[in-house]
Amino acid sequence: MRIRPAQPEDLPQLHALIEASVRGLQVNDYTPAQIEGALGTVLGLDTQLVADGTYFVVEAEGRIAACGGWSKRRTLFGSDHGPGREPTLLDPAQDAAKIRAFFVHPAFARRGIGTLLLKTCEQAARNAGFSRFEMGATLTGVPLYQAHGYREVERVEVPLKNGESLGVVKMVK
User: Fold this and answer.
1) Residue 35: which domain range?
2) pLDDT tens across 72-95, in order?
């Protein structure tokens, strides 16, 4: 496996990977209607992370197997079209870096890729001066993050474009 910063030319592959990940790995935690309503908004790619150089891809077996990143901006979760976008830069001395948009292709699940991404993102954020982290985790991701020291502080229901809502867990470390 090789990890590297995502590039603009990766975007089509990332969109396809994210959809495959959500449809394949989140079916035990969310209904089909929730998944449909969340894809492309709450669950999707924030290209600001790619532009900032804080989004990574993991390559395995000749293709992108996973993606995830961290952010130095206020937006907690969501895609380019997601709710609550706040592009203001964070102050590492006062604010927590945001851990963002982790997706693993179902063919590569349970191989430690999520852990690799998480450690890479935390270290990159530390290198940028951050010492605390927070995220808006999907129900599917909560066990991974808890295993790495994150704790739940709040559960929210995010309204979706189709009238459904999606449970998101705010976690901190």
Assistant:
1) 2-172
2) 999 999 898 777 788 899 999 999
